[in-house]
């Protein structure tokens, strides 16, 4: 088994004490940080499948998520750029009713490395909290809303509508997360959509500098 395969297996098994060391070993063995990250994302796909088929339940899903987060902590310095050029502030959060944060945290990391100051509102963020954060921070250029559940897509729609109806200007809203499509993003009035963290950073930069 390669080091990357070991990382993948241990994330799936939720071995959060072992994963950081294995990720470090995979890096030391010369593996590309992005490949290690991709393997962990794949593990979460497997975990999701097992949950769908009733093979595992929420607690197992949670410990796998914890293991992945620990692994991402080790990868962080290797994934982020220097963020040298300052492009403004980005407000980010997972929409109301939704507690998933691994993808949001990766998106935050990548947008930060593209040169933004990040304000992370966490998970289960009500629409009004996004608006208040825009008011509370200087030079907001991007507001990024993440959502992983089909059932919280209406909350994403409400977040975008509330932000747009606030009358505040000078920033763009981007949305993303597994159930979100470019069509849905356009339908709810978002300025941009990205399917993954790397693309979200490119999109944020493109919109902020347009
Ligand atoms: Co949940 N969960 N979960 N879960 N969970 C999913 C999402 C699910 C697909 C699993 C399944 O059934 N196969 C399913 C949703 C089905 C649906 O609605 N379509 C599901 C469900 C049903 C639930 C509960 C309802 C289960 C229950 O209680 N019965 C419950 C809901 C709780 C709530 O939020 N209110 C629940 C709970 C949980 C845990 C808390 C146990 C845990 C989350 C822990 C945490 O995040 N700290 C969890 C987990 C771990 C998952 C899976 C297994 C993994 C999610 C993940 O971290 N993926 C997931 C199955 C899956 O994803 N295949 C599942 C890795 C991550 C890197 O990918 O988050 O997709 P992702 O982010 C990507 C892209 O989506 C994108 O970029 C990221 C990186 O490239 N992206 C953006 C994300 N945000 C973006 C924003 C952008 C742009 C791109 O711009 C702003």
UniProtKB/TrEMBL annotation:
Please give the InterPro entries that the UniProt record associates with this protein.
Cbl-bd_cap, Cobalamin-bd, Cobalamin-bd_sf, Met_Synthase/Corrinoid, Meth_synthase_dom
SUPFAM superfamilies, per this entry? Cobalamin (vitamin B12)-binding domain, Methionine synthase domain
Q: Tell me where in this chain the B12-binding domain is found.
A: 87-210
Query: Which GO molecular function annotations are given, in alphabetical order?
Result: cobalamin binding; metal ion binding; methionine synthase activity
Q: Which GO terms describe its cellular component?
A: cytosol
Q: What are the protein's UniProt keywords?
A: Cobalt, Metal-binding
State if Iron-sulfur is listed as a keyword: no
A family per Pfam = B12-binding_2
Query: Which GO terms fall under biological process for this protein?
Result: homocysteine metabolic process; tetrahydrofolate metabolic process
State whether keyword Metal-binding applies. yes
Q: Where is the B12-binding N-terminal domain?
A: 1-87
- The highest taxon in the source lineage is Bacteria
The protein here is known as Cobalamin-binding protein
Q: Which organism is it from?
A: Acetobacterium bakii
């Amino acid at each position: 088994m390669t080091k990357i395969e070991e990382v993948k297996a241990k994330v799936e098994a939720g071995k959060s004490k072992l994963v950081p060391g294995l990720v470090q070993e995979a890096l030391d063995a010369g593996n590309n940080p992005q490949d290690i990250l991709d393997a962990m994302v794949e593990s979460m796909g497997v975990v999701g499948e097992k949950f769908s088929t009733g093979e595992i339940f929420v607690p197992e899903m949670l410990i796998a998520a914890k293991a992945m987060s620990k692994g991402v902590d080790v990868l962080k310095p290797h994934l982020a750029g220097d963020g040298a050029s300052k492009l403004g502030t980005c407000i980010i959060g997972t929409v109301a009713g939704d507690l998933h944060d691994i993808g949001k945290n990766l998106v935050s990391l990548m947008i930060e490395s593209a040169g933004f100051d990040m304000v992370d509102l966490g998970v289960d963020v009500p629409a009004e909290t996004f608006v208040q954060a825009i008011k509370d921070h200087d030079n907001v250029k991007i507001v990024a809303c993440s959502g992983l559940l089909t059932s919280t897509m209406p909350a994403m729609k409400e977040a975008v509508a509330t932000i747009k109806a606030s009358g505040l200007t000078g920033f763009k809203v981007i949305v993303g997360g597994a159930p979100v499509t470019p069509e849905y993003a356009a339908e709810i009035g978002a300025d941009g959509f990205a399917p993954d963290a790397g693309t979200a950073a490119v999109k944020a930069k493109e919109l902020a500098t347009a």
